[in-house]
C-alpha cells in the first residue's frame, strides 16, 4: 500500500516478485483528500528552478505549497500530473482496486495459481530490467576505460 510517492519497499517487493495490490488512482486521490495520505511527497521545500526546464512551464510544481488545500485546482493538477508517474502506477502486474470491497473480492477470488502467475510475470519483467541495467553499466565502464 503506498504511503508516499516514492517507496523503496515497493521496489524491493517487486524485485522479489511478490504480488502487490494498490488503490486505483481515483481511490488514492480520494484517500489523499479524506485521510491525508501521501502528505510526504517531497523532502523539504526545494526551490523550483524553472530555468532548468527552459523557462516557465505548464508542468505543475511537484512541491506545491506548504499547507496546500487538497480541494484546490492547483492540488488537483499536481496530483493528476505527478502521481500517475509513481512506480506503483508504472510497474506492470500490480493489481489495482477501487474500494476495500473490491480489494477483498479480487484477493478472495485469486488462487495460488493466479498469485504464482503474477509472480512469474513480475520475474520476467525483472529479468529484462536486469539485462538492460547490466548492458548500461557495461557501456559506462567501457567509456571510462576508453577515456
Molecular structure report:
This protein has 147 residues and is mainly α. The chain has six helices and two strands; from the N terminus they run H-E-H-H-H-E-H-H. The mean pLDDT is 87.
Secondary structure tally: strands? 2
Decide which structural class fits the backbone: mainly alpha
Helicity range: 40-55%
Strand content: under 5%
The rounded Rg comes to 19 Å
Which stretches are poorly predicted, pLDDT < 50 over at least 5 residues? none
Shape: flat
Number of helices: 6
Order of helices and strands: HEHHHEHH
The average pLDDT value, as a whole number, equals: 87
Q: Which strands sit side by side, in order, in the main sheet?
A: 1-2
- What profile does the largest beta sheet have? 2 strands, parallel
Distance between the termini: 45 Å
Amino acid at each position: 500500500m503506498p504511503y508516499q510517492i516514492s517507496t523503496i519497499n515497493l521496489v524491493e517487493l517487486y524485485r522479489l516478485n511478490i504480488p502487490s495490490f494498490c488503490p486505483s488512482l481515483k481511490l488514492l486521490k480520494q484517500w489523499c483528500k479524506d485521510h491525508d495520505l501521501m502528505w510526504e511527497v517531497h523532502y523539504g521545500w526545494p526551490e523550483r528552478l524553472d530555468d532548468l526546464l527552459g523557462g516557465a512551464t505548464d508542468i505543475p510544481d511537484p512541491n506545491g505549497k506548504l499547507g496546500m488545500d487538497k480541494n484546490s485546482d492547483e492540488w488537483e493538477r499536481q496530483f493528476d500530473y505527478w502521481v500517475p508517474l509513481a512506480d506503483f502506477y508504472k510497474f506492470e502486474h500490480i493489481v489495482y482496486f477501487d474500494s476495500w470491497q473490491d480489494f477483498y473480492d479480487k484477493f478472495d477470488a485469486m488462487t495460488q495459481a493466479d498469485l504464482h502467475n503474477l509472480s512469474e510475470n513480475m520475474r520476467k519483467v525483472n529479468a529484462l530490467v536486469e539485462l538492460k541495467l547490466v548492458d548500461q553499466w557495461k557501456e559506462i565502464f567501457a567509456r571510462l576505460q576508453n577515456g
